[in-house]
Amino acid sequence: MKTVEKFAFCKTFFGGFLIYLMAILVVLQSHFVDIVFLSIALDALKVFPSPLSTFYYVVGLYTTVGSNYNPAPEWQGLALIIPFCGLFAFSLSGSALFTMLGYFLASSKPSAKKNDSL
Question: Which of 48, 55, 90, 94 could anchor a disulfide with 39, C-beta 3.0 to 4.6 Å?
């Protein structure tokens, strides 16, 4: 019975807002970790001379903004892979957050009572 009471907090607007805010922070953190892992992998392969230029390149392509840095000709395929990973990750997390928001907005509304007098 106590576990039901704990989850009843989630059905309030404030509880749903806090959980939604935590989900947004987890999504932002996961995108940042993805960028850092890609930067570490490309830096280990020595695609760019410095780790900072590798990080700038990955951030620019992951967010599909673009980058002023150009890798060597044998690494030109990265310009197709990294933006695809970023777009897929952003669309997947955006759709999950949108679905979660719809769920919390629907659960925070007071339920309509049925009229059984008919």
Answer: 55
Q: How far apart are CA 7 and CA 26, in angstroms?
A: 20
8: its two tokens: 């009843």
Instruction: Select from 111, 62, 55, 114 the least CA-distant residue to 85.
Output: 62
Average pLDDT over residues 1-17: 59
Give CA 82 to chain center in angstroms: 15
Separation between Cα atoms, residue 79 and residue 62, nearest integer Å: 9
User: Are the beta carbons of 45 and 39 closer than 8 angstroms?
Assistant: no
Instruction: State residue 60's pLDDT score.
Output: 93
Give the number of residues written for the chain.
118
Radius of gyration (C-alpha) of the chain in whole angstroms: 22
Token couple for 23: 């989900």
So what's the pLDDT on residue 18? 83
CA dist 42 and 72 (Å) reads 12
Tracing tokens 């001379």 back to the chain, one arrives at 49
pLDDT for 62-84, tens place per residue? 988 888 888 998 998 898 899 99
